[in-house]
Structure formats: C-alpha cells, structure tokens
Amino acid sequence: MNTKELQRLLKKYNNKTATPEEKQMLEAWYETINGQGAESTAEETVQLKNEIFGQIKSKIASKQVQPASKSRVKVLSLLFAKAAILLAIFSAGIFFYLKRTDSNLYTSIVKRQKTTIKPGGNNAVLTLADGSTIILNQAADGQIGNQSGVSITKTKSGELVYTFAGNVNAKNTEINTVSTPKGGQYHLILIDGTHVWLNANSSIKFPAAFAGNDRKVEVTGEVYFEVFKNKMKPFIVNTSQSEIKVLGTHFNVNAYDDEAFERTTLLEGSVELKRGPEKTILTPGKQASIAKSSSHIKISDIDDLEAIIAWKNGYFQFDHADLQSVMRQVSRWYNVNVSYKGSVLNKEYSGKIPRKTTAEKLVEMLHYSGIKCKIENNQITVNP
Known about the structure:
Elements: H1 3-14, H2 20-36, H3 42-62, H4 70-83, H5 93-98, H6 106-111, E1 121-122, E2 125-127, E3 133-135, E4 142-146, E5 150-154, E6 160-164, E7 175-179, E8 184-189, E9 195-198, E10 203-207, E11 215-226, E12 235-238, E13 243-246, E14 250-255, E15 261-268, E16 271-275, E17 278-282, E18 286-291, E19 297-301, H7 305-308, E20 315-322, H8 323-334, E21 337-340, E22 348-354, H9 359-367, E23 373-376, E24 379-382
Parallel strand pairs: 1-8, 6-8, 11-12, 21-24
Antiparallel strand pairs: 2-3, 2-7, 4-5, 5-6, 7-10, 8-9, 9-11, 10-11, 11-14, 12-13, 13-16, 14-15, 15-18, 16-17, 18-19, 20-22, 23-24
Helix pairs in contact: 2-3
C-alpha cells in the first residue's frame, strides 16, 4: 500500500466511511503513538512507528484483522471521546512522520515547554453608543445595558441578546460594536433575531435597533451570519472591500486584513455581492473571492461547506491550505506570534483538529505533517 492509499484510508476515517477493521487499525495506531511516543527515545519512536506502519499495510492489504477485545474497544472509544480528536492528522502526515529519521522529534520539544498556551474561548468587548465598554467574559449574567428601549442581556450560556424593552425611537441610530481579540470568539443575537458568530480578532458594528428601510452592519475579520428573513428590510453587510445584500440566509464572511482575498461563502438562500462597479448573485455552495487590489469577483464551487464554518463548530479544518494560512489561524486563536526560520515550504496541508486543543498539543499534531515548530514564551517559531 502506497502513500496515496493510506491518505485515502485516513479520509475514509474522517468521513466515517471506514470499515470496522480499518477503523480499528488506525485507532490502535493512534493509541500506541499517543501513549508511548513521549516515553521513547527518538530512535525507538521512529522504529515503533515504522513497525506499526508495516502492520497496517500488511493487515489491511490481506484483510486479516483480528477482532479487538471489548475492553480495548472501550478504552479506545473513551480515549477518542475525551480527546475529541477525529484522527487529527494532516493528509500525508502519517507517512511523512513515520519515514523521518530526524532525532529532533516533537516529543523533545513538548517536554521543554514550561507553560501551557491555552486555546481561545468566549472573549469579547461590547462598546456602547456613548463609548463605554463592557468586557463580556467578565460581566455577570443578566441585563448589562439599555439603549433607548433596547435591552442588552448576557445569557447563562454566554450569548449576547438584544430585545425590545419598551418604546423604541423610530430614528434610533445608537451604534454598538462587539469585537473579539486574538484568542476570542462570540455569539450574539441582534434585535431582529439574526444570529451572528464572531471568530477571533473580528468585529461587528450595528445599530441597537434597525431604523429605516434596511438592516446595515459593518464587519471585520471573520463572521458567520444566520439572517432572520424580512423581505421588507434587506440585511446589508459592509466590509472594507464589498457590500453583501441578503433577505434571509446563512453565509460566512472572511475579511481579515492579513488575508490576500476576502471570501464570502453561501450556505443557504441567496446574496447579492457588490465590489465597485461589479455585482454578482451567489447561490448555495458558491464562494466569492475578491483580491485586495482588484474589483473582480471570482466565483468558485465549495464541496465541503462544513469546512468553511468549522471554526464556528469548534475545529480547525484545512483543505489544501498553505503553511502560512495554517499558521495565521493558529496565531489568531492562541493569541501568539508566529515567525519563520528558513524558507517556507511550498506544500499544502489538509486536516481537522479541535480548537480546544492546547498550543503544545497542536504543535505535537503539526509534527505529524512535517511542520516543525518550537514554542518559547508567547512565540511559535516554524522551521519548515
């Protein structure tokens, strides 16, 4: 079995189409390296993994797999449920890692870490119309503000909810802003019932109540919307590059300043997107990309829409992403600086990793794909 066949097997596991025998083999491999790798020397670790790799090849090829004991299956199930890791290994990562003979393996790097860099979480700041601010992760549950008849409440689950509390001035234009720092995310519900999720280092500016004939908001960073349908009041999202007009739909906007393209992806409904003189209509499963230096709107098909909003559901998910794209996401979520030592490899990575993983564990996983990282203080240094 060659590398491509092993990649196909990993893909089947992640897509939940692997046979029980194939699943057992991969889970056994993962349990072995997860439990023994850190205690072995570099040479022993490489030898162990080469042995397991050979067993996987021969057993799958011959389809002669011995059934696992009930206790072993239970242990494996608990291991995967607790870690919430869906075989978090990048494509080609197993083969790449097993074939390495470099003694500078991830185990020695992880052992040197004296501190743990925790993943991001619900962390945002609400700025009211008068300029006052509320740190939402520190605010008590319940009503935390009132904007001319609009009540602002923080729920027990950490959401921010805007509701009518009395007579609202029809000309109310009090603008609020919710912003997340690096290492933050947040979910809020606007006065019209629209749900908004902010990724790390993102923001949304909006009126406490929507007056006039439309519902306008401004965003930066990455934001996912589930817009409440109202044919009489279109919902308009403005970014630094474009205007997105919808009636009721689900879509994701990625408008980070450090990304080469602004991308709008439609999951449900339809949207009208404008960039300068150019205008287009998106349908579900389509993505519009706009380069920062161009007004041209490029439309492409997206096969896996769940991958686009994986961040909202608690995962990093990469699909043929370059190294710098992967590390930009890591930098935002863990609030760390990333630097590179040496030239950056022209290589693509695919995989799925839980965002609740610590930075140290993430570095451990990245090593399976040949991405060698070192953590010192609040800095990740990548040595491609």
